[in-house]
Specification:
heterodimer; A: 161 residues; alpha+beta; Glutaredoxin; 2 domains; 11% strand; elongated; B: 518 residues; alpha/beta; Rossmann fold; Ubiquitin-like (UB roll); 4 domains; five-stranded mixed β-sheet; 21 helices; 40% helix; globular
Chain lengths: 161, 518
């Protein structure tokens, strides 16, 4: 594989991001996986890494930008210390999911799709985690939680802080 | 040494299985009892999770809904020898919910360790692949065609015909893709199979590869199932090391390799052409058909695309023969379907039965009706794009044709129950809102229609020109159904119109005595 120079990028992320791309063979069809890995390392996908990825994969910057903005998983800005993904889909709705979402918004002081002002919590909607018989369900920092009751939300959030 | 089985399934984890397993290990150590904890797959009896099982001469004995706080009392009750306790369920195989099922795909659920190749082989695993390795591609296709298997992802397309198309296509490279992104709300059988019996999916896909002459496969799995992704990767590595995947499978001249690709939270990628785009590293934009993916699919090559449950039906068909599978079912719906009971039910979980079971049997006999005592009001069948059925439609038989004739669809077999507290105008609005969030934006009826749909429903509910807007909503839904490029926009009207027509009182319209004819 020919060596690609990333010297033109004045970014601390250039080396680690180029390394991730190389681990995926600089293959353009690995773009989603690469973005997952970049987000895993940096916490989000900052604008400054897009041209680096584009060069490594021989894509245009617009193509990379298009993919980053299409998929809900990729954060373009830093998230809160704790990321709470709460299910908004029908099965959880039928088990009182919206009441849990309201309680979560109150307990974390943020709205769905936003990060709290103190940077502690990011609240995100997901559409089904496959825990449908025991909703409402959430992924809290990657840990699944099911059968959440609105009155238990305060305790759940306090546990994180 | 007494063996203790505790599921490693995501739902069991979400209800505390990891902590319970740790507590049982600690307590056993403190009491100087030698036990072996096996993190097996889940039985799919969701309301009993975390479901702890111990072995006895008569079979496995269960303890359901175990919490860390129960562990000491369980040891005091001598649960390791099946002692009496308020959480005891008795013999697991005798639990009516399980006993009444016809489990083919879920035959190993709750019994085996998901990543133990020895367990898989001891329970009939790879018997189908062994037969397939000695067959020609055309023979495999014939067997699958004769089984009557139809795609379990929604459209119900005959799997054998799809495979034949790819088999007959001439190309240097063909692919097999598993659509593990059909994570419709209310469906979780895919997740449970991938976490609980990953070798079965590997086996089914490998057989598909042999049938079509494809040497490379991808499993595109939604990122909302992180444990499924980890388990699949682990199982692929184990299967490859043991010669069940890769070059020269079991010392034959056949080769097939598999790779897992993570989705990134876009529902539209459950649409097969959007999924192909996504595997290629692009935005999940729907492709126009034709060309069909069987001829021009992944990277422009002939591609078999099936969902998880379709591939998982295949090992049984090859091992036991097409007829054994086709003997289950009714009409043109052959075999079994793992129905998934979710939402407001006392007993949710997996119910695998032959086609033809009624919705009432599923939600009342198996599901035990809504919890908290309120009566059942609506059931959504087939995921977020499926129709809402009312309480007086429960005697409908669950098969592709009967549901289609009733303006509904089987979809992925997800069944979500709502009790009397549901506001059906909110459910209709949500369907439009969901479509607006998840639309890929390529075609206008879906991209703009969904947003207009939310607005029109809001106006109807508010009482703004109610009659005129009701006509407008019907009109908009016809446009979306007929004019959308794929099922996202094309089927969103199904939940919307079924809610609107069957529950007009929730929209401020007069209650209908009888359903208007289509």
């Amino acid at each position: 594989m020919p060596k690609i120079s990333f010297a033109e990028f004045d970014s601390a992320h250039a080396a680690p991001v180029a390394e991730i791309c190389l681990a995926h063979g600089n293959k353009p069809d690995h773009l989603l996986e690469i973005l997952h890995d970049v987000q895993g390392k940096l916490g989000h996908v900052p604008q400054e890494v897009l041209p680096i990825i584009a060069k490594a994969l021989n894509l245009s910057r617009a193509e990379v930008h298009g993919v980053v903005t299409f998929y809900h998983d990729y954060h373009q800005h830093p998230t809160g210390k704790h990321v709470i993904k709460i299910c908004r889909a029908e099965a959880c709705q039928s088990a009182g999911g919206f009441a849990v979402i309201a309680a979560l918004e109150k307990a974390t002081g943020t709205k769905l799709g936003e990060t709290s002002a103190d940077g502690r919590f990011t609240l995100e909607a997901v559409y089904c985690l496959g825990l449908c018989p025991m909703g409402p369900a959430a992924l809290i920092d990657g840990k699944p939680v099911a059968a959440i009751k609105p009155k238990k939300v305060d305790a759940l959030v306090k546990e994180l802080a | 040494m007494q063996k203790v089985h505790i599921p490693r399934d995501m739902l069991a984890k979400a209800l505390g299985a990891d902590d319970v397993a740790a507590a049982i290990a600690d307590e056993a150590k403190a009491r100087k009892i030698n036990i072996q904890i096996i993190r097996n797959s889940s039985r799919g009896l969701a309301w009993l999770e975390p479901f702890v099982e111990v072995e006895s001469p008569k079979g496995r004995l269960g303890y359901g809904g175990v919490k860390v706080a129960d562990v000491k009392a369980l040891f005091d009750a001598n649960f390791l020898s099946g002692g009496e306790h308020k959480l005891a369920t008795g013999l697991v195989e005798d639990i009516p919910f399980l006993k009444k099922q016809e489990r083919l795909t879920f035959a190993r659920a709750g019994i085996t360790d998901p990543v133990s190749l020895a367990d898989y082989l001891a329970h009939g695993g790879f018997a189908g692949l062994k037969k397939a390795l000695a067959m020609s591609g055309a023979e495999i296709v014939k067997e699958v065609t004769e089984s009557g298997l139809r795609g379990r992802g929604g459209a119900g397309f005959p799997t054998g015909i799809k495979w034949k198309t790819v088999h007959d296509a001439k190309a240097a490279q063909k692919y097999v893709c598993c659509n593990a992104d059909e994570g419709d709300s209310g469906t979780f059988a895919d997740r449970m199979v991938m976490e609980g019996d990953p070798f079965m999916l590997i086996e089914g896909m490998t057989i598909a590869g042999l049938a079509a002459g494809a040497t490379k496969g991808y499993i595109y799995c939604r990122s909302e199932y992180p444990f499924a992704i980890d388990t699949l990767n682990e199982a692929i590595a184990i299967a490859t090391a043991a010669g069940w995947l890769g070059e020269n499978i079991q010392h034959t001249d056949k080769s097939f390799s598999l790779e897992v690709r993570r989705g990134a939270g876009a529902y539209i990628c459950g649409e097969e052409t959007a999924m192909l785009e996504s595997i290629e590293g692009k935005r999940g934009m729907v492709r126009a058909k034709p060309p069909i993916p069987a001829l021009e699919g992944l990277f422009g090559q002939p591609t078999i695309i099936n969902n998880v449950l379709s591939f998982c039906a295949v090992p049984f068909i090859l091992a036991k023969g097409a007829k054994a599978y086709a003997d289950y079912g009714m009409g043109r719906s052959r075999g079994t379907m793992p129905f998934q009971l979710g939402g407001n039910l006392n007993q949710g979980g997996i119910v695998e039965k032959a086609f033809g079971i009624t919705l009432r049997e599923l939600v009342e006999d198996f599901g035990g009706g809504p919890y908290m005592g309120k009566p059942l009001r609506a059931v959504q069948v087939g995921g977020p794009l499926g129709a809402y059925l009312s309480a007086d439609e429960l005697d409908i038989k669950m098969d592709y044709e009967t549901l289609a004739a009733a303006g509904a669809m089987l979809g992925h077999g997800g069944i979500v129950v709502f009790d009397a507290s549901v506001d059906m105008s909110a459910q209709a609005r949500f369907a439009m809102e969901f479509c607006a969030v998840e639309s890929c934006g390529k075609c206008t009826p879906c991209r703009i229609g969904s947003t207009r749909g939310v607005e029109v429903i809001d106006k109807i509910v508010k009482g703004e020109n109610r009659e005129a807007n009701a006509i407008l909503l019907e009109d908009l839904c016809v446009t979306m159904t007929d004019g959308s490029l794929c099922a996202m926009g094309g089927l969103t009207p199904m939940p919307v119109m079924s809610a609107f027509r069957k529950f007009p009182e929730d929209f401020g319209l007069p209650k209908q005595k009888k359903l208007a004819a289509e």
